[in-house]
């Protein structure tokens, strides 16, 4: 499902990540912990294929759904269009019915025609999760999904990710420096500074 | 979702910037369209009006004025010529045909042209109503003159002295009687009132009520009978080399319609080219504006573009997206500019028609306009090329990490 062996990543001469071995099986929920600068985002970008490791081998099941830290919904498109965009850009068949079903599953069936600026932060985060699962990912990764959230919203965000990953049968990898998430994950990967 | 939808959604999300870029491009295209349509129609019209007329002979003065007044009926005549001199020239072996013209009066801005039946025959004019003039003071109206004055066969009207838009009845003692209306020809004859040369002579004799026109004509001295010009067709190509020189050596002046039209367009050409260059500058400015807009948008949209890459978009797809935005702006600007150009040309044409000037219409299509469309699209593509390439090369991870 996900396997990294001897992976190193450097920006110039500066090594930001060194991971000798990491494996996650299908359906497992992993928490990647570590302070700022420990390489959490770099690890997620490597898994997502947005970066190539300087050394080592990385195998990840596809498709991969990604929830970026700043959500980055496309402001000029509606909520439903943001979801369909994920299918279009991945070269998958566009399924408006699937978009409606996913939106309903995150509790936003009524907001399909809304623009991102018309959403609250919590709603925008749910749309970002919905977008990440549109292509029925085998691997769902989320970068700092609980930052700047109070306890209630932190729990809701993690509930949502877990529920959506479970629905897709996907492996969930969440990167955070938020200690509140620690108790919810049986599998943890701690990265040093 | 597809690339065009994403492009259009982005352009619609930035209505002010999109509208300004569109306006700039449309103004440039419209300027060039108006000039292209107007000059092309004017050239075609002048060529059509002068077709088959090799030489104009008239009073000495400006040759261009002679051609403008006698062929296109746009300027005041240079003066009159003696009938004897005109007859002598018409008998020259180098002359195949000489059509006499006697000008000086008008009706509601439409020139009254004293001539013979060769003149309507030269322009291939056919009657749509009534008959050609048979005796002095009979008049036949060109289609445009008839439409504007609403005169019909059997009506009477009085000529005004001069060729302006004056409606003064200077010659109301001797009215004209309309005997026929000509069908449209698309030439200068549509805009004139035709009569016999004798009618023009009579009108200027200031007849009293009850005077018999036939007797007045018979009593006129030969010196009183004048023409304004002769429209000449050469008998042979050799005549082109000899006749103008012969004419200019005598009391008359010879002017070539082809040469004077070309000279007129060369003179007008400077102004037309300056305006055309201005249009091109506007189009290029629009291109620069699209380039700046897309380049600035790159910074603003780097997260969107990074997310699209994150969602699986290839570099080619991102490049296509930006290129499509440039093309969409250019295509919309071209359509808007062409539409605006045609409407403005029609407005200009309506103004010219109201002044009995050379008619121009906006409801026509010039082949050159396809080049304008191509120019606009090329500007859009070139303006989008660099931003699109930069968008496709941008690294995704640093942008997402920068979040």
Give a short summary of the structure.
Chain A has 193 residues and is of the alpha/beta class.
Structure write-up:
The complex is a heterodimer of chains A (193) and B (403). Chain A has 193 residues and is of the alpha/beta class. In chain A, 32% of the residues lie in helices and 26% in strands. Chain A has helices at residues 40-48, 79-89, 96-105, 121-133, 151-168, and strands spanning 2-11, 14-24, 29-33, 55-60, 64-67, 139-143, 171-176, 187-190. Chain B is α+β, with helices and mostly antiparallel strands. Chain B contains 14 helices and 13 strands. In chain B, strands 1, 3, 4, 5, 6, 7, 8, 9, 10, 12 and 13 form an 11-stranded mixed β-sheet that branches. In chain B, strands 2-11 form a two-stranded antiparallel ribbon. In chain B, strand 3 (95-107) and strand 4 (110-115) form a beta hairpin. Chain B starts with a helix and ends with a helix.
In total, the number of strands of chain A is 8
Helix fraction of chain B? 55-70%
Q: What best-fitting shape of chain B do the alpha-carbon axes yield? A: elongated
pLDDT < 50 stretches of chain B: none
Give the helix tally of chain A.
5
State the major sheet of chain B. 11 strands, mixed
User: In this structure, how is the largest beta sheet of chain A organized?
Assistant: 5 strands, parallel
Draw up the topology in text.
The complex is a heterodimer of chains A (193) and B (403).
Chain A: E1 2-11, E2 14-24, E3 29-33, H1 40-48, E4 55-60, E5 64-67, H2 79-89, H3 96-105, H4 121-133, E6 139-143, H5 151-168, E7 171-176, E8 187-190
Helix pairs in contact in A: 2-4, 3-4, 4-5
Chain B: H1 3-13, H2 15-50, E1 55-58, H3 63-70, E2 81-82, H4 83-90, E3 95-107, E4 110-115, H5 118-122, E5 127-130, E6 138-141, H6 143-149, E7 156-157, E8 160-161, E9 176-182, E10 192-196, H7 197-203, H8 213-219, E11 226-227, E12 229-234, H9 239-249, E13 253-255, H10 257-300, H11 302-310, H12 315-354, H13 368-393, H14 396-402
Parallel strand pairs in B: 4-10, 6-9
Antiparallel strand pairs in B: 1-12, 1-13, 2-11, 3-4, 3-8, 3-12, 5-9, 6-10, 7-9
Helix pairs in contact in B: 1-12, 2-10, 2-12, 2-13, 3-10, 10-12, 10-13, 11-14, 12-13
């Amino acid at each position: 499902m996900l396997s990294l062996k001897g992976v190193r990543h450097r920006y110039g001469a500066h090594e930001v990540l060194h991971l000798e071995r990491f494996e996650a099986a299908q359906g497992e929920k992993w928490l990647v912990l570590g302070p700022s600068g420990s390489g959490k985002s770099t690890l997620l970008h490597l898994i997502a294929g947005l970066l190539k490791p300087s050394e080592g081998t990385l195998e990840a099941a596809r498709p991969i759904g990604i929830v970026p830290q700043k959500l980055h919904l496309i402001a000029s498109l509606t909520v439903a269009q943001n979801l369909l965009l994920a299918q279009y850009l991945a070269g998958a068949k566009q399924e408006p019915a699937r978009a409606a079903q996913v939106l309903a599953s995150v509790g936003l069936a009524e907001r399909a025609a809304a623009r991102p600026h018309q959403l609250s932060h919590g709603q925008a985060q749910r749309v970002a999760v919905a977008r990440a699962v549109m292509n029925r990912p085998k691997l769902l990764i989320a970068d700092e999904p609980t930052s700047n959230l109070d306890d209630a919203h932190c729990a809701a965000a993690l509930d949502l990710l877990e529920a959506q990953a479970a629905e897709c049968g996907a492996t969930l990898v969440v990167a955070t420096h938020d200690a509140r998430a620690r108790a919810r994950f049986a599998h943890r990967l701690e990265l040093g500074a | 979702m597809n690339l065009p939808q994403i492009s259009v959604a982005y352009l619609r999300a930035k209505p002010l910037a999109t509208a300004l870029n569109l306006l700039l491009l449309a103004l440039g295209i419209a300027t060039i369209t108006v000039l292209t349509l107007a000059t092309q129609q004017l050239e075609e019209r002048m060529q059509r009006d002068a077709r088959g007329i090799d030489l104009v002979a008239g009073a000495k003065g400006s040759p261009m004025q002679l051609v403008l007044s006698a062929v296109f009926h746009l300027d005041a005549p240079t003066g009159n010529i003696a009938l004897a001199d005109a007859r002598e020239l018409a008998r020259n072996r180098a002359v195949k045909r000489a059509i006499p013209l006697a000008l000086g009066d008008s009706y509601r801005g439409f020139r009254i042209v004293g001539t013979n039946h060769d003149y309507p025959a030269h322009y291939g004019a056919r009657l749509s109503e009534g008959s050609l003039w048979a005796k002095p003071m009979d008049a036949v109206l060109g289609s445009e003159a008839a439409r504007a004055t609403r005169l019909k066969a059997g009506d009477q009207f009085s000529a005004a002295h001069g060729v302006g838009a004056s409606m003064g009845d200077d010659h109301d003692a001797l009215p004209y009687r309309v005997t026929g209306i000509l069908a449209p020809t698309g030439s200068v004859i549509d805009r004139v009132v035709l009569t016999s040369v004798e009618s023009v002579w009579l009108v200027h004799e200031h007849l009293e009520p009850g005077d018999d026109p036939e007797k007045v004509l018979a009593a006129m001295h030969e010196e009183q009978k004048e023409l304004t010009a002769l429209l000449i067709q050469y008998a042979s190509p050799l005549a082109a080399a000899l006749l103008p020189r012969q004419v200019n050596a005598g009391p008359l002046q010879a002017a070539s319609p082809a040469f004077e039209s070309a000279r007129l367009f060369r003179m007008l050409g400077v102004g037309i080219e300056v305006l055309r260059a201005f249009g091109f500058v506007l189009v290029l400015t629009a291109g620069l504006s699209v380039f700046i807009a897309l380049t600035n948008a790159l910074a603003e949209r780097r997260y969107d573009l990074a997310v699209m890459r994150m969602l699986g978009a290839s570099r080619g797809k991102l490049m296509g997206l930006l290129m499509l935005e440039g093309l969409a702006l250019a295509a919309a600007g071209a359509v808007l500019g062409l539409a605006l150009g045609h409407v403005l040309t029609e407005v200009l044409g309506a103004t010219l028609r109201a002044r009995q000037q050379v008619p121009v219409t906006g409801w026509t299509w010039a082949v050159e306009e396809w080049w304008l469309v191509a120019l606009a699209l090329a500007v859009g593509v070139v303006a989008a090329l660099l931003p699109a390439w930069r968008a496709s090369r941008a690294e995704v991870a640093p942008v997402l990490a920068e979040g």
